[in-house]
Amino acid sequence: MKRLVSFILFLVVIVSARAQTHPIAFFNTSEAKEVATSLQAFPLLTNSFNTIKKEVDQNIGKDIDVPLPKDPAGGYTHDKHKTNYMLMFNSGILFNLTGEIKYAELVKKMLLKYALLNPTLKKHPQATGNFPGRLFWQSLNDANWLVFAGLAYDLIRPILAAEEIKTIEQGAFKPEVDYFTKDLKDWFNLLHNHAVWACAGVGIVGIASDNKEYLEMAMYGTEKNGKAGFLAQLDNLFSPDGYYTEGPYYVRYAILPYMLFANAINNSKPELKIFNHRNNILQKALLTCLQQTNLNGAFFPLNDNLKDKDYTSNELVTAISIAWKVYGPDEGLLTVAKKQNRVILNMGGAQIASHFNSAKSTPKYFPYKTIESTDGVSGKEGGVSIMRLGREKDLTSLVFKYASQGLGHGHFDRLNINLFDQGNEIIQDYGSARFIGIEQKYGGRYLPENTGYAAQTIAHNTVVVDQKSHFGGDTKLGEQFHPTKLFSDTSSSNLLAVAARETNAYKGVDLQRHLYLLQTAKKKKFLIDIFYVSSDSLHQYDLPFQYNGQVISTSFPYQSYTKNQETLGAENGYQYLWKEAEATVFKTTAQFTFLNNNTYYTLSTLADDSMRIFFTRAGANDPNFNLRREPSYVLRTKDAAQTFVNIIEIHGNYDPINEFSVGAYSTVRSIKLLRDDAECSIVEITLNDQKIIVTQAKKDFSKSSDHRYTVDNQVYSWKGPYSITTQSNK
Predict the structure, then answer these.
(1) What's the CA gap between 478 and 575, in Å, rounded?
(2) How far apart are CA 150 and CA 301, in angstroms?
(3) What percent of the residues of the chain are helix, what percent strand, and what percent coil, each to the nearest 5?
């Protein structure tokens, strides 16, 4: 009898020790208890809890299908496995918050089914590319499964018998971990958002199963030399200020595994101080990501971006709740959390929900500001400037991209601009050609038109030389070079300036763009865009503007092609553009006005010689209707050197309800290039009641340099790289 009692006490100690160790990856028992006591105290936390409880409860007592994989993205088996890993994760959380064993049993039964399925899997039947998945068509989705299944396992591990632990670890997880770290070792060791997910999955399973080998590979790469793995991802994919080289859409996606794995590391190995790594790089990444959104929270469409994604996505909900817990309260995050209207069920989520109860009010808009992000590990590979005038609903944002290639998701868009006003996309970027999760559209994968059109230079708002994309459309070549920022000035709230140069996009052609976002004393907003293109030989230069709006008027006649249309070109994205109209202008200021969401925008262009203008629309050579039928306005010249001077004016208002139109005409009367040589340019912009004089250096951008030039007996002098002055026409 004594021996039986001793054995029972021994079992109690073992189970108790195991319970103290796990859960640990998502939260520990102490944190779970704190969250549980707050569930009914704060409405946002209560609603978030009730939402996942309702979803999970619908599956309690049912036999959950764990099907043999066969479908691409959007198909039944794909979506089922995706639903399954979230169901397991949420059910594991509910077990810890409620103590009800039925939630743990649901997870256990599903993991045991995967323990039977996973060892039998080989390459997915719908796999494409070099990195196929097993449960899903691509390995990235398998990594998603591993992250959440690993967390779910950790959340219920204390109730599992030793044999069940062995079965799940050997059957459900080992085949996936071995596949990643052996069969797909090169992919696992990449510095890429896919590998962030893979490292997080293997590392979380390592923490959940107390497997030191898994955790070390996740942290330092399969060779454990630090050249790959999670720390290398933190060190190499972000610039020092938190810009993610693939752009905001992809940091939105990668921030989830970054935060979840960092949280698991912080819980299990707090001595590593992972959230302080590289001067709080994850906090910087999150805040930079949020600054790279529009008023509605949509991410600026840099590189392969789907425009429907915004900061209410699950990835940002998770990241914000973890960041709040780790880095403390942030009013900007509170604004985003309010729009998300849900939190994850950790201490950060509970604290956010508590804050809403005590806060008198929450700002309606995220605290957007002018932000200049560097690119590259050391911040020396160009960057992205987001210049902002105004505030809240009257915010105007200019995005200037002079960053590096952006890895495989990068587009050929050196010195590209996008303009947003009052939350609307005015000069836009196509983003990516993909219907993610829709099986009928190429299995939810990237469409052929993504590389054929969306990534090509003509689909952007920057110069195209001889109808060829930057770097000839060669990604590896593009990755070898980056633009150079020449100067910027954000010291004034009414005038923002930035300039950058690209010398490698085309052999023997120099691209240099100077941008000024200006608000006059009368609150009129202008974008002054001066783009220099120079070469020793004759070229065709196209400068497209992907405008978003309804054509209102032009200052020049044009020929419309209403019965027969041809494409603008034969390749490099030109084959997808219908030529809807064209015009030829000569020594004039050509103006084009369009209407977007009841505000007028006029693009005024200096045609200092002969210039052809094309109105185009995407959709040619697209029998499957994969592309959005979006318009563009293309300026074309032929010369060795060309200075494009364009002014975009924001003006007026149209009231369709009361049928009033106010300020529908541009105030720009003319543009003159008074001087333009190797040293400087002097531009005179005549408005109705005043002139704007832009003087800028083209070589010497030192803030301390003095410049002095005489044109027609008029002396122009300034200090620094540029000067903008106004004078009355009277």
Answers:
(1) 23
(2) 33
(3) 40, 30, 35
Report the C-alpha gap between 354 and 38 in whole angstroms: 9
Tokens describing residue 580? 């809807």
Burial of residue 280 (CB within 10 Å: 0-12, 13-18, 19+) is middle
Residue 409 a catalytic site member: yes
Contacts of residue 174, Cβ cutoff 8 Å, sequence gap at least 6: none
pLDDT at 222 over 50: yes
> HEC states along 435-463?
CCCCCCCHHHCECHHHHHHHCCHHHCCCC
> Which of 250, 541, 547, 601 is an active site residue?
250
Write down the catalytic residue from 81, 409, 460, 482.
Answer: 409
Q: Which residue type does 496 have?
A: L
The amino acid at 61: G
Closest C-alpha among 82, 26, 90, 32 to residue 59: 90
- The CA distance from 485 to 701, in Å, is 11
Rounded-to-integer distance, Cα 696 and Cα 371, Å: 23
Q: What phi and psi values does residue 351 have, to the nearest 5 degrees?
A: -65, -40
pLDDT at residue 728, as a whole number:
80
Helix, coil or strand: residue 262: helix
Torsion of CA 258, 264, 270, 274, to 10 degrees: -10
- SS3 call for 276: helix
Q: Reply yes or no on whether the pLDDT at 54 is more than 80.
A: yes
Q: Is the pLDDT of residue 241 over 90?
A: yes
Q: Which residues pair with 678 in a beta bridge?
A: none
pLDDT in tens, 614-671: 999 999 999 999 999 999 999 999 999 999 999 999 999 999 999 999 999 999 999 9
Minimum mean pLDDT range among 139-143, 434-438, 508-512: 434-438
Q: How far from 73 is each of 88, 137, 304, 315, 729, CA to CA, in Å? A: 20, 7, 18, 19, 62
Q: Is 174:153 a contact under the CB 8 Å cutoff?
A: no
Rounded Cα–Cα distance for residues 173 and 218 (Å): 14
**What distance in Å separates the CA atoms of residue 348 and residue 337, rounded to the nearest whole number?**
11
Alpha helices in 514-578 (DSSP H): none
Calculate what percentage of the chain has a pLDDT beyond 70: 97
Domains, the chain, in order of start with CATH, read 1-232 (1.50.10.100), 371-666 (2.70.98.70), 667-730 (2.60.40)
Q: What is the pLDDT of residue 579?
A: 97
Q: Coil, helix or strand for 246?
A: coil
Residue 539 a catalytic site member: no
pLDDT tens, 668-714? 999 999 999 999 999 999 999 899 999 999 999 999 999 999 999 99
443-449, Cβ contacts within 8 angstroms, sequence gap of 24 or more: 443/72, 443/73, 443/74, 443/75, 443/126, 443/137, 444/72, 444/73, 444/74, 444/78, 445/72, 445/73, 445/128, 445/137, 446/304, 447/626, 448/626, 449/576, 449/622, 449/626, 449/627
| Separation of alpha carbons 186 and 129, rounded Å | 14
pLDDT tens profile 430-487: 999 888 888 888 887 889 999 999 999 999 999 999 999 999 999 999 999 999 999 9
